[in-house]
Amino acid sequence: MNCRVKICGITSLEDALHAVNAGADALGFVFYDKSPRYISPEAANAIIALLPPFVVPIALFVNADESLVNALISGSKRWIIQFHGDESPESCAKYAVPFYKAIRMKPEVDLQVEVERYSEALAILLDAYKLGVPGGTGETFDWHLIPENLAKPVILAGGLTVDNVAEAVQAVRPYAVDVSGGVEKEKGLKDPDKVALFIKRAKGLLPVL
């Protein structure tokens, strides 16, 4: 199985191109203004205009105003949206753009029910739950809580690093993994060596030390 890799929290063309050259399948851009990895729609569209084909740009929104979403997607037809807040299935689908839905793994969450609710989503992204923090917690969750027979592809997020991504891929067999803080020098600035190593370990190209 070839696990795909999304490098999230991209804030510069330099970081974007390095991730692509290291083998990233997708790049994530955060449009949540409380995040230290926030980027404006104009800056993000300028970056993706310079990306090669077959690299997927993912737009992360958290309970965003419709005007912000439209400002982004009007600038490029390449976007896939990742809804990372409390968006309803109807509000996710209304933009007529392919989307993922992030589910934070609260103790009471029923993933089978959530998959049925967001039936139009391309995939479900699973992230750790921390009260008051919509994402980027740097924490993992119990991967054994993920059912094996979900009807949607799983994108695994939450506290992944170069040290645990190979184990995560072996345990969960996700369609893709998603990392942001785990490959940074500082918030919003990627570490090229960590990015390259993370991608190789996620794809099984290096032995685990």
UniProtKB/TrEMBL annotation:
Keyword list (alphabetical) reads: Amino-acid biosynthesis, Aromatic amino acid biosynthesis, Isomerase, Tryptophan biosynthesis
Q: Which reaction does it catalyse?
A: N-(5-phospho-beta-D-ribosyl)anthranilate = 1-(2-carboxyphenylamino)-1-deoxy-D-ribulose 5-phosphate
GO MF, any single term: phosphoribosylanthranilate isomerase activity
Q: Which GO terms describe its biological process?
A: L-tryptophan biosynthetic process
What is the main EC category here?
A: isomerase
Which biological pathway? Answer: Amino-acid biosynthesis; L-tryptophan biosynthesis; L-tryptophan from chorismate: step 3/5
Give the highest taxon in the source lineage: Bacteria
Which segments constitute the N-(5'phosphoribosyl) anthranilate isomerase (PRAI) domain? 5-200
Entry-linked Pfam families? PRAI
**InterPro entries for the chain:** Aldolase_TIM, PRAI_dom, RibuloseP-bd_barrel, TrpF_fam
EC annotation from Swiss-Prot or TrEMBL: 5.3.1.24
- What's the family? Belongs to the TrpF family.
Checking PANTHER family in the record gives:
N-(5'-PHOSPHORIBOSYL)ANTHRANILATE ISOMERASE
Q: What is this protein called?
A: N-(5'-phosphoribosyl)anthranilate isomerase
- Give the species this sequence originates from: Marinomonas gallaica
User: Which gene is this protein's source?
Assistant: trpF
